[in-house]
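Researcher: We plan to redesign the surface later, but first we want a full-length starting point. Tokens attached.
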């Protein structure tokens, strides 16, 4: 039985989660499709930002430091996915006039996120949950990630250059 579990773990580590249909390559394919709207991109970016936010700022401080090594690589992977999804969408689509504000907001958000992620990780690694709670970058990310409509992303984007 132990050998079977070892083989299963090897398989999962090599292939990824075999039950996960929505892999990053699936999403890149979705975003390259001509019918994919900018709202679909915003929805996916917000979901990934939510995953990052929950890793950097978990609800329960007790769970916060259980796996200090695993969460940082997960954050970097999610940010890489955000960068790839935005790049693929903008490469394959021309922004419509009515979507210009959303496109600018996405670009600003992705740039802001890339500029601030290292600081956010360092604050999260400080092992002081209060510092994380007081971090402006963490608060901004939480507000954007918690709004499933994407309105917060579009509303806050013009101000993100200041942070």
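Model: Full-length starting sequence:
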């Amino acid at each position: 039985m132990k050998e079977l579990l070892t083989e299963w773990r090897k398989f999962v580590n090599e292939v990824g989660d075999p039950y996960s249909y929505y892999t990053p390559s699936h999403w890149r394919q979705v975003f390259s499709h001509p019918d994919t709207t900018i709202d679909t991109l915003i929805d996916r970016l917000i979901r990934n930002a939510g995953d990052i936010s929950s890793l950097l700022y978990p609800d329960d401080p007790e769970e916060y430091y259980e796996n200090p090594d695993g969460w940082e690589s997960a954050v970097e992977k999610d940010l890489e996915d955000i960068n790839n999804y935005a790049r693929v969408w903008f490469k394959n689509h021309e922004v419509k006039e009515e979507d210009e504000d959303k496109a600018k907001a996405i670009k600003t958000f992705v740039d802001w996120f890339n500029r601030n992620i290292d600081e956010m990780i360092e604050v999260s690694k400080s092992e002081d949950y209060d510092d994380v709670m007081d971090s402006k970058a963490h608060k901004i990310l939480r507000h954007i990630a918690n709004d499933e409509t994407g309105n917060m992303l579009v509303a806050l984007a013009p101000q993100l250059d200041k942070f």
